[in-house]
Every structure is written in C-alpha cells, then in structure tokens.
C-alpha cells in the first residue's frame, strides 16, 4: 500500500497535462490508449487532437469512411490499429447504441482491445480493480523488485501481471494505474532514470544491487527480414500519375502506393527493365526510366527493414488508374511515400 500511495502522490504533483486525462469518457480513453500503443505521447498527441476534432463522438468515427480514417492516421504506423479502431467504433455505435462495455471482461471482446487497453479503460472510466501492465509498468516493477524474468516470456507476462494486481490501489485503481505508467515514462526511464530524486529509491532493489540498467530483461526478437521495394512513379505529360491500393493482410493494408515490384535484392536499371513484372507493366521502347534515389530509403518496422527505391517512368499515355497529381494528397499512403511526395516535383 505504501508503494501505491507513494506513486499516486508523485503522480498528482508531476503528471503531464494531457487532454484525455481531463475526461472519464470511455470513447476518449479508448481512442488515446489505442493511439499510444507502441507510440510516444509526443508523437501520438497531435493525432489524438486531429481525431477528436474530426470525430468528436464514436458515432462520428463510425460513420467515417475507412479511407478517411487511414488518411488521418497516416504517419502513425501500425495501421491495423486504425482499421480495428474503425471496426470497433462501428460495433459500439451501431450494435451497442454508442455505449462502451463497462467491465474488463466485456471490453476484452472488442476488436483491437487487449489486456492492457481493457484494464486501462475499466479502471479509469469505471473504477474496476484491474491493473495495467505496459512497458513502463514492466520497467518500474522489474527494477523495484529486482526481477530478471523476461518480460516478453509467457512466465514473465503472468508473473508481472500477478504482481501488478497485488500492488493495485483498490480504492482508486484508475489514478494508480496512470501513476505507475507516468512514473515509468518520466522518472524510471529506460536510459537515464532519475534515481537521485526517486521517491522509491530507498527501497529499490535494482538500485541497491547496481542492476538498474540491466532491467527489465527481454528475450531477443526474431531475426529482422530485409525486403526490397521498387516503386514505379508514373509522370505523364498530362500531369497525372498512377496509384494502387494495397490488399491482403500484410503491412499497410488498405493504403495506397505507386505500382510496386518487390525483389530479393537491389536491382540495376537494366535488371529492373528485364524483370518480367516490369515488362508486363511498361513498354520500355516508348518510356524513359530513371532511378530517383541511388541510395535506398530504409524504412524500419519491428520485424522487417524495407529498402525502397523510386523509379521515375516518364510521359506514359492514358491508363485506367491514372489520377491527377494534385489528387494524390487525398489518399492515405505509407509514410515513406508521403515523405517522397514532399520532395519530388511532378512538374506542371
């Protein structure tokens, strides 16, 4: 109980003023928690404000097109979160009459809502006694109690969840849950923890045993896969280009891109022109081709690194999928294409 009260006291003095903390509306808490999964607050906050402005209620979000949702989400990454967000908004709005479930167990049934998000909403909005466990909580508990069980192992997940439940302030679980997460984010940080000003330092076992920077322990990730993307950027003399929508269950599902040829390695211009897929798309006798960036843009995702080069295809004729260059900004695209569009000049 002393542990919980100490954290809550620290939180009330040091917490950041964030818009979702001014509300107990489950829609706003849910939206913020989904957006902040694997995302820093500094990055997620502008997106949260954009979404609340565009979709002030769950009904507004439910009525939006998926394309509009993805466009507003553009650049935040992990786009399955946006698709799940939209799916769940429609479920809550049209099947639950706009009312979010009010228990942890029922919240878990919502698409895209896992243990952490359900615990956060249930405790903050409904005062239910369920503990949150995110990266910040893992770090605080691992250090304070000197626990070296890997946090991403099945044993570690169970162990830390159980410990978090034991420490939970049953009188005010919502405030306590926010306190321990904020403490990990601001005080017990990954690289430069502020141990000298920590209100828990007198009892922190990692500090006592000189293991602060060794904890928490995490099992090594799977090997990173390298992928090589060749985007074909059509630039016609009528100021049009070609984009297509990504389909399937891979990365960036539902986003738009230039026609893509994926290869097992970087290609020379000659190798690209000789590629069967390239030949099926382009009449090379009539179409000049040039490489825009010799050095590939490396886009790093959790389990894959994408090496991307853009090939400029000049002055092609009419094509069924042509769109005016000015319209391309209306489509949701992966951030690496958004960055390309900021610097590339399609001409008049």
Characterization of the model:
The chain is an alpha+beta fold. It has two domains: about 1-215, Endonuclease III, domain 1 (Orthogonal Bundle); about 225-345, Alpha-Beta Complex (Nucleoside Triphosphate Pyrophosphohydrolase), CATH 3.90.79. The protein contains 15 helices and nine strands. Strand 7 and strand 8 (about 305-315) form a beta hairpin. Keywords: 4Fe-4S, DNA damage, DNA repair, Glycosidase, Hydrolase, Iron, Iron-sulfur, Metal-binding. It holds the Pfam family NUDIX_4. Adenine glycosylase active on G-A mispairs. MutY also corrects error-prone DNA synthesis past GO lesions which are due to the oxidatively damaged form of guanine: 7,8-dihydro-8-oxoguanine (8-oxo-dGTP).
Mean pLDDT: 92
Q: Can you summarize the main beta sheet? A: 5 strands, mixed
Number of helices: 15
How many E-type strands? 9
**Name of the top-level CATH class of the largest domain:** Mainly Alpha
Strand percentage lies at 5-15%
Q: At CATH's second level, what is the architecture of the largest domain?
A: Orthogonal Bundle
Helix and strand sequence: HHHHHHHHHHHHEEEEEHHEEEEH
Rounded to an integer, what's the Rg over CA atoms? Answer: 24 Å
Enzyme class: hydrolase
Protein name: Adenine DNA glycosylase
Function: Adenine glycosylase active on G-A mispairs. MutY also corrects error-prone DNA synthesis past GO lesions which are due to the oxidatively damaged form of guanine: 7,8-dihydro-8-oxoguanine (8-oxo-dGTP).
Family: Belongs to the Nth/MutY family.
